[in-house]
From TrEMBL:
This is F-box domain-containing protein. InterPro entries: LRR_dom_sf.
Length: 297
């Protein structure tokens, strides 16, 4: 007679309680494929996979032995730039033989952490032909901050992305102004959180994402040419939610008004800025420059 361990006869609720004290990757490493009941109990950890903070032995086993078996169930996945040497090594593995879109056909959200230098651009070349992947969340990235780099990110996965987010620990992009002949846009992008080096690049950013509905921007420097940079830029007609964070320089009411004039249908506005302009501080004239449809500020 097959011997059943005490652990295997515990109720599902008790097993899930134990899982609260383990990292996601530890759960897969410890319980996956012990039996069909445990596989069913931990199924949610097969939908949302995070393999951070594992030992080398644990990570290598989960990445090379378990991920290929559960890839069709994964909806969101955290990928650490430090893992590339393991997952895409010269030794033949599933990751080097098969396209990622075939390994993870249901992937919806991809979180990229700790990418440096040229790692991100190389990895983006592998992000193609995912039919369901629409969200890219980039954290602690210290990579190329050029205009071309941002364009490569927005256009990843064959221009199927809808949401691209950079956290506060990632780089600031320094975009360059473009003429009409060079202008490229990514109408697929609906949500974007990004940091810019100077507000002069706001115009270039607006051109990149003409159909944006939610835009959160952190601006590090104010340029004297901010008005000219926006002068001939089309309005963001789909934008409903805008957040501007800019604490390292002083904004005038005139400058704020010029930015908001490009957002005629804005409904939600958050301004986390520094100003010494009395018209902004006292609010009476500030209210006059707000979009008419604004319902939350």
């Amino acid at each position: 007679m097959e011997k059943v361990s005490t652990f295997e006869i515990l109720p599902d609720e008790m097993i899930l309680h134990v899982c609260q004290y383990l990292r996601d990757g530890e759960i897969l490493y410890s319980f996956f494929n012990l039996n069909s009941r445990l596989n069913s109990t931990i199924m949610d950890f097969c939908h949302h996979v995070n393999l951070t903070n594992l030992t080398y032995k644990q990570f290598k086993f989960v990445a090379l032995q378990i991920l290929p078996q559960i890839g069709g169930s994964i909806r969101s996945f955290v990928f650490n730039g430090l893992w590339q040497s393991i997952m895409f090594s010269r030794e033949p593995t599933m990751f080097s033989r098969v396209k990622l879109s075939l390994l993870f056909p249901q992937l919806h959200t991809l979180i990229l952490m700790n990418f440096v230098g040229g790692q991100l651009n190389l990895f983006l070349d592998k992000i193609t032909d995912f039919f369901h992947l629409i969200k890219l969340d980039i954290r602690s990235a210290q990579v190329d901050n050029s205009y071309d780099s941002l364009k490569a990110i927005l256009g990843a996965n064959n221009n199927r992305l809808k949401s691209v987010l950079f956290d506060n620990n990632s780089l600031e992009f320094l975009l360059t102004s473009t003429n009409d002949e060079e202008a490229v846009s990514y109408p697929n992008i609906e949500e974007l959180t990004v940091s810019l080096k100077t507000d002069k690049t706001l115009g270039s950013l607006f051109i990149l994402v003409p159909n944006i509905t939610r835009l959160y921007v952190d601006v590090d420097e104010l340029s004297s040419a901010s008005k000219r940079a926006l002068e001939n830029i089309p309005s963001l007609l789909q934008l409903k939610d805008f957040q501007l964070r800019s604490l390292d320089m002083q904004w005038s009411l005139d400058e704020i008004a010029y930015v908001l004039s490009k957002m005629p249908f804005l409904q939600r506005l958050v301004l986390d800025i520094s100003t010494e302009d009395k018209h902004v501080v006292h609010g009476e004239k500030f209210i006059q420059v707000l979009p008419l449809l604004l319902v939350e500020i």
